[in-house]
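Dear support,

I submitted the protein below through the web form. The confirmation email said the job was done, but the results page showed an empty box. After a refresh the structure appeared. I'm attaching both so you can tell me whether what I see now is the final result or a partial one.
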Amino acid sequence: MKFLAMCSTGLGSSFMVRMNIETVVRELGLQDVTVEHSDISSAGPDSADVFFVAKDLEDAVQGLGDVVVLNSIIDMDELRGAVKEAASRHGAV
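What the results page shows now:
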């Protein structure tokens, strides 16, 4: 399973969210989960199983598939819950 953290440029916030997702994946002991980051314009529906974006980019990711919209990109509790739910939807938990 692949998670993709995205922001408008694919640099700052998406990289930070990626690192935080990787931390949560390790904490939860999820196997066979890869995490990458990207800018929104480079992502397509086949780029990942689950896409993570900040609330301000919600409109830009319509049609990608399984999108997780984060109210706060720094709230680890929110991210932990979102990763666990996404992994469960895709049979990884």
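Response: this is the final, complete result; the empty box was a page-load delay. The CA atoms of residues 10 and 38 lie 4 Å apart.
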